[in-house]
Amino acid sequence: MVALMTKSTTGAFFAQAAISFGVALVAVAAGIVFLPVSGWVRAFLALGLLYTVTSAFTLAKCVRDRQEDSALTNRVDQARLEKLLAEHDPYKEPAL
After folding, report:
1. What is the pLDDT of residue 8?
2. DSSP letter at 40?
3. In a domain, 94, yes or no
4. Residue 70 lies in a domain
5. Separation between Cα atoms, residue 55 and residue 61, nearest integer Å
6. Residue 95, in any domain of the structure
7. pLDDT by position in tens, the chain (length 96)
8. Contacts of 49 (CB under 8 A, 6+ apart)
9. Are 85 and 28 in contact (CB under 8 A)?
10. 3-state SS assignment for residue 53
């Protein structure tokens, strides 16, 4: 039997990514609402937008990794079931 070693993201990293995305989104929204025409505020908005985009990619990676982990587990379970069904012979005499 081969042991499968998979790397998975921890719950804390997943939570950090989700919180980071939320904070970035709120920061950009606040920047848009209170946007005067000064250059410093526009720079703040650009920085917030950059942070939002990178946080979105991190969150998407976490979601994808979690989905791949569950898909791999389901495939392994399906392969084990198919092996058991292939080896089962209903007409074989039980051993006494």
Report:
1. 65
2. H
3. no
4. yes
5. 10
6. no
7. 444 555 666 788 888 888 988 888 888 778 777 787 788 877 887 788 888 888 888 888 888 888 877 776 677 777 888 888 888 777 777 666
8. 28
9. no
10. helix
